């Protein structure tokens, strides 16, 4: 998959205009760093509602709210990677203050792939890059085994998400709620299942990649996770946690520590933005 977007310059005027794409779950009058979280397929900003309690005071915690869920329920879903990345790129360049301090991009499952592709677009445009990509619980670009759940029946799609996250089994008993979440879920699965081609290399990023996995994740082996090292020309690390595909539900405090270590490890910070980790 190749993008055809031409490089665009970041606006010189700070707009600070609100965006429905970014839900700020924690901020501070004098923030010095920022974390962007990109949810999994079918996920929404509320999944991360407990995380801010573990985030340092001077760090802003922002979750991307994809269209078609929660307060954006009436916004049309996006079912392909190109349009998703283009929309996110436009939102960031339209709100340039979001790129003016050091930031980390974290993506879980589908969110890791979106984060990776967005960083490529930022690089092509000559804009500020994150100090690291923290990629969780997904295959490296070009290495995923193809699936076709986005064209399966509603019941088959629900069975798949419950298999990955048994805590969602309640959806089977709430038909109205299920009808609300299925459009976004199907669009997300279409996005990730039509993303790129198997064995088609994607460019490496010039920033560190920290790969996180659950040690009992049936969707991703350790060997497959290690293929992410091909997606960076900088440092690569792999860390596993007890649990399956959604290991992070029980280990979000440790995951946030990985974010903070990314700032400490980075050599890209301007001296004027240097700080001590807590």
Keywords:
disordered N terminus, Rossmann fold, 278 residues, alpha/beta, disordered C terminus, seven-stranded mixed sheet
- Parts with pLDDT < 50 across at least 5 consecutive residues: 1-16, 267-278
Number of strands: 7
How far apart are the first and last residues' alpha carbons, in Å?
41 Å
Broad shape: globular
Rounded average pLDDT? 86
The top-level CATH class of the domain at 22-140 and 201-265 is Alpha Beta
Number of helices: 6
Main sheet makeup: 7 strands, mixed
The fold-level CATH name of the domain at 22-140 and 201-265 is Rossmann fold
Structural class: alpha/beta
Strand content: 5-15%
CATH superfamily of the domain at 22-140 and 201-265: Alpha/Beta hydrolase fold, catalytic domain
Helix content: 25-40%
Q: Return Rg in Å.
A: 18 Å
Q: If strands are numbered along the chain, what order do they take across the biggest sheet?
A: 1-3-2-4-5-6-7
Level-2 CATH architecture of the domain at 22-140 and 201-265: 3-Layer(aba) Sandwich
Order of helices and strands: EEEHEHEHHEHEH
Q: How would you characterize this protein structure?
A:
The protein has helices at residues 81-94, 110-124, 154-164, 175-193, 222-225, 248-265, and strands spanning 22-26, 33-38, 59-64, 103-108, 132-136, 209-214, 236-241. 38% of the residues are buried. It contains six helices and seven strands, in the order βββαβαβααβαβα. By secondary structure, the chain is α/β, with parallel strands linked by helices. Residues 1-16 and 267-278 have low confidence and may be disordered. The chain has a domain at 22-140 and 201-265: Alpha/Beta hydrolase fold, catalytic domain (Rossmann fold, 3-Layer(aba) Sandwich), CATH 3.40.50.1820. The N and C termini lie far apart (41 Å). α1 packs across α2 (110-124).
């Amino acid at each position: 998959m190749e993008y055809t977007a031409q490089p665009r310059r970041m606006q010189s005027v700070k707009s600070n205009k609100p965006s429905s794409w970014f839900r700020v779950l924690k901020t501070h009058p004098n923030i010095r760093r920022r974390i962007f979280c990109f949810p999994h397929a079918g996920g929404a900003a509320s999944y991360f509602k407990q995380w801010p309690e573990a985030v340092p005071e001077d760090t802003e915690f922002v979750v991307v709210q994809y269209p078609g869920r929660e307060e954006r329920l009436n916004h049309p879903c996006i079912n392909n990677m190109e349009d998703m990345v283009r929309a996110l790129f436009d939102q960031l360049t339209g709100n340039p203050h979001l790129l003016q301090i050091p930031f980390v991009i974290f993506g879980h499952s589908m969110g890791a792939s979106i984060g990776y592709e967005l960083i490529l677009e930022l690089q092509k445009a000559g804009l500020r890059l994150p100090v690291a990509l923290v990629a969780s619980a997904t295959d490296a670009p070009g290495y995923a085994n193809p699936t076709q759940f986005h064209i399966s029946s509603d019941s088959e799609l629900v069975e798949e998400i419950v298999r990955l996250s048994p805590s969602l089994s309640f959806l089977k008993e709430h038909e109205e709620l299920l009808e609300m979440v299925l459009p976004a879920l199907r669009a997300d699965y279409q996005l990730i299942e039509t993303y790129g081609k198997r064995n088609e290399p994607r460019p490496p990023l010039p920033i560190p990649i920290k790969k996180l996995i659950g040690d009992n994740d049936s969707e991703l082996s350790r060997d497959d996770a290690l293929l992410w090292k091909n997606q960076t020309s900088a440092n690569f690390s792999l860390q596993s946690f007890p649990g399956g595909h959604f290991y992070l539900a029980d280990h979000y405090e440790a995951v946030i520590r990985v974010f903070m270590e990314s700032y400490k490890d980075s050599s890209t910070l301007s001296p004027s933005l240097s700080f001590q980790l807590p």
